[in-house]
Amino acid sequence: MVARPADLEMAPTVLKRAPIGHDVLSHGVVAGRIIKPAASPEGAPWLWTRAFGQHEDRAPTHGYEPTREASMAAFVWRRE
Questions:
Q1: d(CA 51, CA 56)
Q2: How far apart are CA 16 and CA 3, in angstroms?
Q3: CB atoms within 10 A of CB 47
Q4: Staple partner for 36: which of 7, 18, 20, 54, CB 3.0–4.6 Å?
């Protein structure tokens, strides 16, 4: 099942190596993560990534954005 924007919610991540971040949930299942890793490109500190199985018909599967909100928008983007 591919997540749509209305299906998504965010919860604090359970990853110990990424204490600043969120799990992106679709119907209670982790569809991906948006985290602020220790190392990232300048000006784009937020990393978003889709979980395996949630990237069908979608590209790209991960990326860096300047804000958490921009990461969420990039996460839900779907190639037409």
A1: 10
A2: 25
A3: 20
A4: 20
Can you give the residue range of the structural domain that contains 30? 5-76
Neighbours of 29 (CB within 10 A): 13
Q: Please give the chain's pLDDT, 80 residues, in tens.
A: 444 556 688 887 777 666 688 888 888 888 888 999 888 999 999 999 888 665 566 667 889 999 988 998 888 765 43
Q: Tell me how many domains the chain contains.
A: 1
Strand ranges for the chain from DSSP E: 8-12, 21-26, 29-35, 46-50, 62-65
Is the whole-model pTM more than 0.85? no
**Rounded CA separation 68/66 (Å):** 7
Structure-token pair, residue 45: 């500190």
